[in-house]
Amino acid sequence: MNPNDARSHGYLTQLGGIGLVNLATLTWSTNMVLGRWLRDDVGPLTLAAARYSIAAVILAALLQRRPRTDRRLGQDGWLLLGMALSGVAIFTPTLYLGLRLTTAVNATLINGLGPLLTGVLAALLIREPMSGRQVVGAVVGLAGVVVLIPIGSLSPGQAARGNVGDLITLAAVGLWGLYSVLGRRVMRHRSPLSATAFSAFLGLPFLLAAAAWEARSVSVDLRPALALAVLYIGVAPGVIGFLSWNAGVRRLGPSGAMVFYNTLPLYGALLGHLVLGEPIGPRHLIGGALIVGGGLWAARGQGKEENEASTAR
Q1: Domain ranges of the chain
Q2: pTM of the prediction?
Q3: Which range, of 102-111, 140-149, 295-304, averages the lowest pLDDT?
Q4: Of 60, 111, 187, 262, which residue has the fewest beta carbons closer than 10 angstroms?
Q5: Is the dihedral of CA 170, 37, 40, 49 positive or negative?
């Protein structure tokens, strides 16, 4: 391939990956808003099970049009099971539980550690070291999260009550990083749709069993608004978000994709302003610029390195 054509193709691939992971974080920010809205109506395990029940039906229908190899577990079944446990069966209810026990401020800041945790896991598990640009981009993005969230608004009492929730949320972020790393490995041999679908299929039985256990002590407030919210969560964050994320990971790598995970609090702030009428001030604009700028810097560096490697080959 002509070096210029390879470079152009690499930039287009990189740009597409950036768009995909941002679509994923946008849908997941709506999931967090609805998750908080529904916290008194449905338990975290039941909500997660309902979400993936809907997602599994849609993914199964989409998968029927894929080649036979995409519709079978194959030799990477254990990796898919790892994705199912880390990103579906454990991550989602863990995040919901963490949000019940800590403040949104703390949870958002902890999620800002996602790029660094994913980079470390990628280096340890699949030997994909973080480039200098990715490290700088992750740190700049984390700085944007710190600017975006007013830490001073927390009282000592709130901070003390959130300690357990902070640890649970941190565990959830680590689980998501592991899901992204495993997804990178799996998608060397199968499509993002296949990886997303099988991780949902394999994780759903665990969630259903956990929801049945939760139902013995936590009741569900059945009402039309709840049904519509759960349907949305199953379709947008559960299907569109996961497909977009896995496709973005395939193009950018887990470290490059996780740099943009910091856009989640940015979108959350925007949605809070548009939907809930919360004000947006200078710190939101500065923090947002750092988050997006750090992500663009890291992803641009990755694309340049991949183009040079492709040219050399």
Answers
A1: 3-312
A2: 0.74
A3: 295-304
A4: 60
A5: negative
